[in-house]
């Protein structure tokens, strides 16, 4: 485990911090943003043509910490061009040129995963066609469909990241990204909970307008939710697996505080529920399938619980620095889990409107860009829409969203693809990479559970992790 926290880790962490600082600087000064954006385009293009593997490291940094991919962006003819789009297009273009020049062999076609991705992508294309044929708004169709293009990255992934050293770098980047997510989440939490007003507005608008997350008041403290924190949830199980199966000393379990802090401060019901269920499944699995003793199970649970309490205590102590907010934990809990909480209420209200829309075309779906209107209780909706009537093509119910767009057949193909990943992962658990594969499997379980009520598997954050699992599971032959 500690081998992942050596010299390359600190260099990558420094780069991630620098990238975020430059993004913030560019947000404060639009001219600087334009200069930085063009510099990055040139830099990424040069690196990709020089060695495409290095461009993929940039791509993973963006994936792990960039949330919606707009750390750097520029409006061009009314369209917001993001650094994630630039990375995707550059990587795909250079890879296609490499294939034409016979530098790359399109090795993914020979993978056992190919047929599953191929069939699912047919349903994705069908959803695109149906969306256009059903006269869904063209911009809705595009923005609903375009995230799935991220699946195409599996081709350069399989050609370029096929050896163990390359794959190990991915996880060094991940752990550096998790460290930054924990640091950033805590710093923003501290700044807002202590009302450091000199910087609060700039931080708030940077995070909101760059699509990095949301900052919501839960008096007297603040909820700091960043979409990229899904990797804190995933990363927890990867770290836990490495710690257990590499038989690290107990003191190294403190590393688990890195993913736990963002999970706590996200105040995300989806993350918390997924964390609890996945951790329970994890303990049951290592008991039944790995024959762990009850004593060892209790030790693992106790260590995780201790670190969780330690994180909570540290966060509470950070709030005792003046000014000192008065915290009612039961009130905070009710605000996030009460039935009348706006976001929770909106999810429930969606169902009576979403289900009939699904049943109009339950087999093949209604296509991307299909909208449903419902009355939302979310105060932000009331501010912008008459009587709270809200029309959208994006829904919190992740699997129902897919059912609406690509039908039961498309959803079934997607679930089969996910099951193929689990099946392959379980098969490869017996290889030398067992600690890492074990963690990846349970990270995927956490992602699958989260997607029920918070859509991630139809977003680059979830798609990227799914194809990463496919890559590692396919190439699990040598020690990483």
Offer a few descriptive terms.
6% strand, two-stranded antiparallel sheet, 480 residues
What does this structure look like?
With 480 residues, the protein is mainly α. It has a domain at 110-155 and 344-480. It has 19 helices and six strands. Strands 1-2 form a two-stranded antiparallel sheet. A hairpin with a 2-residue loop joins β1 (73-76) and β2. α1 runs antiparallel to α2. The N and C termini lie close together (12 Å). The model has no long low-confidence stretch (mean pLDDT 89).
Mean pLDDT: 89
Helix content: 55-70%
Strand content: 5-15%
Give the structural class. Answer: mainly alpha
Biggest β-sheet description? 2 strands, antiparallel
Query: Nearest-angstrom radius of gyration?
Result: 22 Å
Poorly predicted runs are none
H/E element order: HHHEEHHHHHHEEHHHHHHEHEHHH
Strand order of the largest sheet: 1-2
Count of alpha and pi helical runs: 19
Distance between the first and last residues' Cα: 12 Å
Shape annotation: globular
Q: Total strand count, please?
A: 6
SSE map:
Layout (H helix, E strand, L loop, with lengths): L6 H22 L1 H21 L1 H14 L7 E4 L2 E4 H18 L13 H20 L4 H8 L8 H7 L3 H30 L6 H10 L3 E6 L2 E6 L3 H16 L11 H9 L3 H20 L5 H26 L9 H9 L4 H19 L11 E4 L3 H6 L4 E4 L5 H30 L6 H17 L9 H15 L6
Antiparallel strand pairs: 1-2, 3-4, 5-6
Helix pairs in contact: 1-2, 1-8, 2-3, 2-4, 3-4, 3-8, 5-6, 5-17, 8-11, 10-11, 10-18, 11-13, 12-18, 15-17, 17-18, 17-19, 18-19
Brief overview:
With 480 residues, the protein is mostly helical.
């Amino acid at each position: 485990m500690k081998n992942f926290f050596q010299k390359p880790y600190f260099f990558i962490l420094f780069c991630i911090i620098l990238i975020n600082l430059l993004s913030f600087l560019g947000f404060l000064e639009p001219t600087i943003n334009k200069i930085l954006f063009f510099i990055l385009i040139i830099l990424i293009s040069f690196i990709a043509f020089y060695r495409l593997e290095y461009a993929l490291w940039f791509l993973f940094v963006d994936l792990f910490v960039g949330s919606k991919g707009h750390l750097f962006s520029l409006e061009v003819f009314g369209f917001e061009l993001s650094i994630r789009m630039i990375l995707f297009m550059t990587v795909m273009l250079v890879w296609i040129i490499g294939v034409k020049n016979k530098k790359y062999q399109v090795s993914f076609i020979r993978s056992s995963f190919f047929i599953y991705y191929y069939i699912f992508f047919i349903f994705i294309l069908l959803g695109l066609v149906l969306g256009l044929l059903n006269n869904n708004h063209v911009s809705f169709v595009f923005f609903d469909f375009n995230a799935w293009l991220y699946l195409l990255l599996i081709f350069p992934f399989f050609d370029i990241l096929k050896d163990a050293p390359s794959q190990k770098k991915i996880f060094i980047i991940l752990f550096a990204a998790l460290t930054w997510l924990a640091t950033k989440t805590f710093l923003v939490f501290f700044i807002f909970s202590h009302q450091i007003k000199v910087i609060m507005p700039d931080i708030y608008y940077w995070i909101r307008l760059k699509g990095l997350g949301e900052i919501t008041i839960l008096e007297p403290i603040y909820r700091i939710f960043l979409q990229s924190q899904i990797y804190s949830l995933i990363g927890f199980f990867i770290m836990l697996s490495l710690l257990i199966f590499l038989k690290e000393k107990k003191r190294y379990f403190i590393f688990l505080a890195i993913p736990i802090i963002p999970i706590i401060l996200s105040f995300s019901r989806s993350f918390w529920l997924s964390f609890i269920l996945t951790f329970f499944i994890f303990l049951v699995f290592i008991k039944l399938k790995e024959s762990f003793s009850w004593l060892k199970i209790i030790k693992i649970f106790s260590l995780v619980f201790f670190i969780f309490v330690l994180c909570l205590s540290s966060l509470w102590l950070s709030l005792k620095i003046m000014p000192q907010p008065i915290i009612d934990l039961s009130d905070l809990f009710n605000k996030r889990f009460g039935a009348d909480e706006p976001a929770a209420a909106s999810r429930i209200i969606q169902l009576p409107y979403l289900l009939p829309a699904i049943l109009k075309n339950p087999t093949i779906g209604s296509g991307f860009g299909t909208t449903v209107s419902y009355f939302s209780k979310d105060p932000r909706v009331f501010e912008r829409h008459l009587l709270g009537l809200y029309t959208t093509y994006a829904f919190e119910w992740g699997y129902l969203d897919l059912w609406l767009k690509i039908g039961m057949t498309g959803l079934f193909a997607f679930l089969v693809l996910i099951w193929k990943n689990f099946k392959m992962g379980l098969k490869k658990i017996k290889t030398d990479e067992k600690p890492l594969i074990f963690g990846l499997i349970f990270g995927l379980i956490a992602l699958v559970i989260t997607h029920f009520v918070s859509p991630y598997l139809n977003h680059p954050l979830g798609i990227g992790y799914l194809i990463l699992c496919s890559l590692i599971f396919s190439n699990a032959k040598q020690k990483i």
